C-alpha cells in the first residue's frame, strides 16, 4: 500500500523511533515500524510504543547505536535507549527448521523456549501473532506492507491468529491472553477459528514463567479495560490458571464476596485509570486476594488451634507465596499489600488516639480504600465500620476529636467477620481497682 493510499504520516511517529529507522536504513539495512504502532495509528489510536524490525542482527544493531543494549534470551532484542524512552528493535524471525538448540528450542507441549532463528520479512510476518499485528511501515518509501490479510482484518475488526491456532497457542500460550486484551482494547471480535481452541488450552498458562505473567497481568488490568478483560477471561477460562486461589472461591460461590470483590476492584481500577489517577499492584493484589486470605486464615486456625488473629498473619505469607507460583509479585508490592491487610484488623480497634495514629500510617489511604470496598461487598458491620471511618477521614480536626472519642461502634461489637486479637487479661492495676 503506497504512501498516498494510507493515513500514516511521519508526524505521528515518535522522533526517537524515526531516528532509529533512518539510521538503520542509511546504513544499508531494511527498517520497518511494525506491530501495535502501525495498527494503532491506522485505527486512529495513540500507540503505546513503537517497535522496529530490521534485517540487521542484534550485533550489527549494537555497532550502529552507542545507546544500545541487547536483551532477552527466549527472544533476543536490541533496546535503543533515549533517556526514559526505549525503542525495541527486533531482527526478522525465521522458521524453525532443524537448527541447533542454542537458537531454537521447544518443550514437550510445543512451547518455544528459544526463538532466535533469523529470516526475511515474509517469514517474520508468519511468526507474528495476529494478522493485524503483521503490518509493516517501510521507512524507505513510507508504504505499508500487510501480510495474511492484516489490512482487511483491521478494517473488519477481526482478530485472526496467523497459522494454525492450536499450534500457535502451544508455541506461546500468552497469545490467548493477548487475544482477549486486543479484543477489548481495539473493540475487535476474535475470529471463530482463532477462538475455538482457547477454552481447552487455557490450562497451558500455568507453565508460563511467573515473571512474564506479572507483566501480562499489568497490561490486562492496568490499562482501563480491567472489567472487560476479566469478563472475557472468565468466558474463555483464562482467569482460573492465573488466580487459582481466587478461582476456587468463585467456583464455590459464583455470586459470593470473592466475586463481588473481583468486580469491585476491576471497576475501581478502570475508573482510576480513566481519570489518570495512579494505580498500584499492591492495592490490586491486596484486594483480589482478601477473601482467599480470610479463608486461609480460618483454615489455619481450625487446623492448628491458633487464634484467628495469629492465623491471619501466617496466612498472609501463604497466600502471597501461592499467588507467586503463577504471577511473581515483586516484593516492593507484596510487602505493602501485607501492610494493607494488617491495617484491616486495626480498623476495628480504633477508639480515641488509635484512630489518629492509623491515619498517619503510610499505607492508610490504600487500606482505607480496601475497607470501603469490603463495606460495599459485605454490608453489615463492615459497611458500618467503613462509614465510621469515612466520617472520620472527611471531618475537620475538631470534629475528628469528637468522632474518635465516640469510637467505632460497629467494630466495637466484636464483628464476627473479622479476626480479633485475643482479649487481653485485665491488667493487675485494673484488677486491683475493681476489687
Ligand atoms: P501493545 O504494545 O499495544 O500492547 P503490540 O501489538 O505492540 O501491542 P507488543 O507486545 O508491543 O504488542 O509486541 C509488538 C509486536 O510483536 C506485536 O504486534 C506482534 O507482531 C509481535 N508479538 C508480540 N508478542 C508476540 C507473541 N507472543 N507471539 C507472536 N508475536 C508477538
Ligand atoms: Mg507494542
From TrEMBL:
Gene3D superfamilies per the UniProt record, alphabetical: Beta Polymerase, domain 2, cca-adding enzyme, domain 2
Keywords: ATP-binding, mRNA processing, Nucleotide-binding, RNA-binding, Transcription, Transferase
Reactions it catalyzes: RNA(n) + ATP = RNA(n)-3'-adenine ribonucleotide + diphosphate
Boundaries of every Poly A polymerase head domain copy: 31-160
Sequence ranges assigned to domain Polymerase A arginine-rich C-terminal in this UniProt record: 305-423
Active-site residues (renumbered): 49, 51, 129
InterPro entries: NT_sf, PolA_pol_head_dom, PolA_pol_I, PolyA_pol_arg_C_dom, PolyA_RNA-bd, tRNA_ntf/polyA_polymerase_I
Chain's role: Adds poly(A) tail to the 3' end of many RNAs, which usually targets these RNAs for decay. Plays a significant role in the global control of gene expression, through influencing the rate of transcript degradation, and in the general RNA quality control.
Protein name according to UniProt: Poly(A) polymerase I
Species, as recorded: Shewanella decolorationis S12
Amino acid at each position: 500500500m503506497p504512501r498516498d493510499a494510507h493515513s500514516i504520516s511521519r508526524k505521528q511517529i515518535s522522533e526517537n523511533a524515526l531516528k532509529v529507522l533512518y539510521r538503520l536504513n542509511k546504513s544499508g539495512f531494511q527498517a520497518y515500524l511494525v506491530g501495535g504502532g502501525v495498527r494503532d495509528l491506522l485505527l486512529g489510536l495513540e500507540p503505546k510504543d513503537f517497535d522496529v524490525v530490521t534485517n540487521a542482527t542484534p550485533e550489527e544493531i549494537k555497532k550502529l547505536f552507542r545507546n544500545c543494549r541487547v536483551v532477552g534470551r527466549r527472544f533476543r532484542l536490541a533496546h535503543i535507549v533515549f533517556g526514559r524512552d526505549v525503542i525495541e528493535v527486533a531482527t526478522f524471525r525465521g522458521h524453525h527448521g532443524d537448527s541447533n538448540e542454542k537458537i531454537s528450542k521447544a518443550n514437550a507441549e510445543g512451547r518455544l523456549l528459544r526463538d532466535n532463528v533469523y529470516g526475511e520479512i515474509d517469514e517474520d510476518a508468519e511468526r507474528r501473532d495476529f494478522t493485524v499485528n503483521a503490518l509493516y511501515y517501510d521507512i524507505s518509501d513510507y508504504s505499508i506492507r500487510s501480510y495474511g490479510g492484516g489490512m482487511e482484518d483491521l478494517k473488519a475488526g477481526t482478530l485472526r491468529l496467523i497459522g494454525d491456532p492450536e499450534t500457535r497457542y502451544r508455541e506461546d500460550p500468552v497469545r490467548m491472553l493477548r487475544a482477549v486484551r486486543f479484543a477489548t482494547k481495539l473493540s475487535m471480535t476474535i475470529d471463530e477459528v482463532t477462538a475455538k481452541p482457547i477454552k481447552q488450552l487455557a490450562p497451558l498458562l500455568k507453565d508460563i514463567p511467573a515473571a512474564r505473567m506479572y507483566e501480562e497481568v499489568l497490561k490486562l488490568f492496568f490499562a482501563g479495560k480491567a472489567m472487560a478483560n476479566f469478563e472475557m477471561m472468565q468466558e474463555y477460562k483464562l482467569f482460573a490458571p492465573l488466580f487459582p486461589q481466587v478461582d476456587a472461591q468463585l467456583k464455590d460461590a459464583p455470586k459470593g464476596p470473592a466475586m463481588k470483590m473481583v468486580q469491585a476492584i476491576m471497576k475501581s481500577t478502570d475508573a482510576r485509570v480513566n481519570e489518570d489517577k495512579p494505580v498500584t499492584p499492591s492495592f490490586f493484589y491486596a484486594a483480589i486476594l482478601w477473601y482467599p486470605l480470610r479463608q486461609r486464615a480460618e483454615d489455619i486456625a481450625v487446623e492448628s488451634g491458633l487464634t484467628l488473629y495469629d492465623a491471619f498473619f501466617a496466612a498472609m505469607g501463604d497466600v502471597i507465596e501461592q499467588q507467586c507460583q503463577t504471577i511473581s509479585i515483586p516484593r516492593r508490592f507484596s510487602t505493602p499489600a501485607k501492610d494493607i491487610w494488617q491495617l484491616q484488623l486495626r480498623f476495628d480497634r480504633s477508639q480515641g488516639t488509635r484512630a489518629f495514629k492509623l491515619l498517619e500510617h503510610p499505607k492508610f489511604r490504600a487500606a482505607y480504600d480496601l475497607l470501603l470496598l469490603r463495606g460495599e461487598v459485605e454490608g453489615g458491620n463492615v459497611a458500618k465500620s467503613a462509614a465510621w471511618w469515612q466520617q472520620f477521614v472527611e471531618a475537620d480536626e475538631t470534629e475528628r476529636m469528637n468522632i474518635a472519642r465516640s469510637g467505632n461502634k460497629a467494630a466495637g461489637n466484636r464483628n464476627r467477620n473479622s479476626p480479633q486479637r485475643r482479649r487481653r487479661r485485665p491488667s493487675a492495676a485494673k484488677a486491683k481497682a475493681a476489687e
